[in-house]
Amino acid sequence: MTLGLSRSELILKLIVEQYLADGSPVSSKAISEHTSLQVSSATVRNTMMQLEQSGLIRSPHTSAGRIPTTQGIRLFIDKMLQLEPLPSRWLSEMQQNLQPQLPVSLLCQKAGQLLANLTGLVSIFSPPKSGGRVIRQVDLVRLAADRLLLVVIDEEGDILHRVLSQQQSVEAMTLSRALCLLNAALCGQQWLDGISRLALMLKTETGAIAGLLQDVMAQLSLDELQQNQPLVFGQHHLLQAAESQKDPALQQVIQLLEQPACLMSLLKPLTLDDSTKLILGRESGIAQLHNVSVITVRYQADPHRYLALLGPRRMNYARLIPLVEACGQQLSKHLNQPKQSP
């Protein structure tokens, strides 16, 4: 027997590997012809019957073949899966795209796009800034008499820049006063605290300055809302598959990804340590995810940041698990290194 497996485990391993490769039911004849087995077709049939009674494989419809259940795939992954070395091309692309000098949000965006492009699946990243941001610098730059550029830089180097269009020309004194108030309210503060301080200052200001501060506060609030949304890449892969396969189950997954709060509530407690987690179909407890699997890993503890790869239950786990782990390690290496003083 291979890898110290019992006969029934080896037969389950062969069934799962064949199913993951082509998605077709596996017959006892195909299993008995495998070179690693030296038993009769009758013995294979009896063993497959035992596996079916144990809930590890099942017969779809009236087919003579068997496919693994979620329980069978789980046993295979936990005990029999042999991870593959990461292809050098994937490693090279990861190193080229995920540069340490990139701000956090851009680094996560590049990682998400890279994972989706390499795999043809959906990559999901926890909100890049959900741990709270400290504002390092704020500026208002005149673009025209009635247009200003708001620039806000946080401690991790991410930059918010928004054009503020005013109803009338902004005088130099108004611009100078507004900038002084913004620096007093925001610099050195966490994003939400800065917004609260700015709201208090607004109560004592009137006219053009009040209008300008109100516009800045609206942009900061909008950005805070956006930064607390998870990043999702590769939805078009699911959409194309759902259309080509006319699969309503995939349509449900697409709808879930449009409002992913339920999915994030599942992933967050699973990523409290550094180990890679795999959720198979019904294990999620979420009806929309019954036909898909999710590989997830944490890449930063404080703030809590994690990524996930979502795809069909029949995916190449041996190759994709190392890819998710390598991406997490690359992000962790860049984000957890000591911060340099500005």
UniProtKB/TrEMBL annotation:
<dbReference type="InterPro" id="IPR029016">
    <property type="entry name" value="GAF-like_dom_sf"/>
</dbReference>
<keyword id="KW-0678">Repressor</keyword>
<dbReference type="GO" id="GO:0045892">
    <property type="term" value="P:negative regulation of DNA-templated transcription"/>
</dbReference>
<comment type="similarity">
    <text>Belongs to the HrcA family.</text>
</comment>
<feature type="domain" description="Heat-inducible transcription repressor HrcA C-terminal">
    <location>
        <begin position="109"/>
        <end position="321"/>
    </location>
</feature>
<dbReference type="InterPro" id="IPR023120">
    <property type="entry name" value="WHTH_transcript_rep_HrcA_IDD"/>
</dbReference>
<dbReference type="InterPro" id="IPR021153">
    <property type="entry name" value="HrcA_C"/>
</dbReference>
<dbReference type="InterPro" id="IPR002571">
    <property type="entry name" value="HrcA"/>
</dbReference>
<keyword id="KW-0804">Transcription</keyword>
<dbReference type="Pfam" id="PF01628">
    <property type="entry name" value="HrcA"/>
</dbReference>
<keyword id="KW-0346">Stress response</keyword>
<dbReference type="InterPro" id="IPR036390">
    <property type="entry name" value="WH_DNA-bd_sf"/>
</dbReference>
<protein>
    <recommendedName>
        <fullName>Heat-inducible transcription repressor HrcA</fullName>
    </recommendedName>
</protein>
<comment type="function">
    <text>Negative regulator of class I heat shock genes (grpE-dnaK-dnaJ and groELS operons). Prevents heat-shock induction of these operons.</text>
</comment>
<dbReference type="InterPro" id="IPR036388">
    <property type="entry name" value="WH-like_DNA-bd_sf"/>
</dbReference>
<keyword id="KW-0805">Transcription regulation</keyword>
<dbReference type="GO" id="GO:0003677">
    <property type="term" value="F:DNA binding"/>
</dbReference>
